[in-house]
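Contributing new records

If you add data, match the layout below exactly. Sequence lines come first and carry their own label; structure lines follow with theirs. Keep one chain per record. Anything else will be rejected by the validation script.
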Amino acid sequence: MFITAITKVGWIMDYSQMLPTYTEIVSSGKLSYINSENLKKELADYQSQVELNQQITSSYNPALKETERLAIGHLNGMPEASNLIKPVSSYKGISFDLKSIATDIEFYKNIKHISFQSAMTIDYISDQLITSTERLKSLIDDEIKSYSKNR
């Protein structure tokens, strides 16, 4: 549970689902069905923002893995790897040495790094992606209304 909680410090929503759809629209030539040049530009800008978000979030995955490694080093009562025949959660008496964790400077630095990166990513998502998504939704609604009128 402790390692899961530490890992969740760095969990960020993945916005990559839009990229395959946009790529398919562009590669199929169906982007020409959209009349609004503004909407086409916003779609391209949005894809760039999603790609940037992916670069930001992937940059701190090594810190998450290192923090997990450091945390596992503070386990008490853990059987040797060669004796593990069941999932770790099924062994009784396994606990973390919280005193040693509290004095582990590298562990503290990693948690601080992950927390900072998470906060920066959340700020980026809030400031850029959510605003862009709302603008994109409005442009799509306008395009649908325009298409319906002209039909």
